[in-house]
Design a protein that fits this description.
Blueprint: E1 6-12, E2 30-31, E3 34-35, H1 36-45, E4 52-57, H2 62-71, E5 77-82, H3 87-97, E6 107-112, H4 120-133, E7 135-141, E8 165-174, H5 175-188, H6 195-201, E9 208-210, H7 221-240
Parallel strand pairs: 1-4, 1-6, 4-5, 7-9
Antiparallel strand pairs: 2-3, 6-8, 7-8
Amino acid sequence: MVKEQITALIFAGGTGRRMNSRSKPKQFLEMHGKPIIIYTLEHFEYHELIDNIVIVCIKEWIKELEGLLRRYGISKVKKIVPGGETGHDSIYLGLLTMREFINGDDVVLIHDGVRPLINEELISLNINAVKKYGNAITCEPVRESSVRSKDGEIIAEVPPRDEMYTAKAPQSFYYRDILRLYERAREEGIRSIDSAHLCSLYCEPMHMVLSTKNNIKITEPADFYIYRALYEAMEGQQIFGL
């Protein structure tokens, strides 16, 4: 019997326009001499259940990424794929290349390359939830009231806060299921914000996994400094046993 494989699909295709960084994309910005993308990849590299990593990267930065993988000993990367026009397109391209080495009943974890504050436990929770429920969407309870507006001027609804969550990552699925949705979206000309949004558009049931705290996505300059402060605080806790 062939062992099921578990693959992490890391989306690192963003150009970082909102970071105001002219020198390099946000995923290649460094903290303490190490690029953000490497901090993210290490969580999957060191997890014993992850067999493969596929990275979707800006075409012009693939050579740079290859060098970083060698430098930091990231050995599970099976493929690096040039990104598409949008995040939706890039995830689809990453899923397509997996046909070469995984089966339909293998598990795929889709994760942002600029979301480095995850941990081994969250990856395991995603894998276990896929096996039990069919998928896993990492979510975090909202901390403030959310409002709904169609035009950005008039508030139409203020949903109960205890019913509201923010979709994070990883977002995890059986390969056959998520590839089927992206192929259907391609045929129908639909582009989604993320995989959870795509599932919602097609009324697919989703199972929620509670996120670790501070699972931030580094999108704007302030996010980078928040990440640095959080990382240094966690490092301090380990050193001093707090």
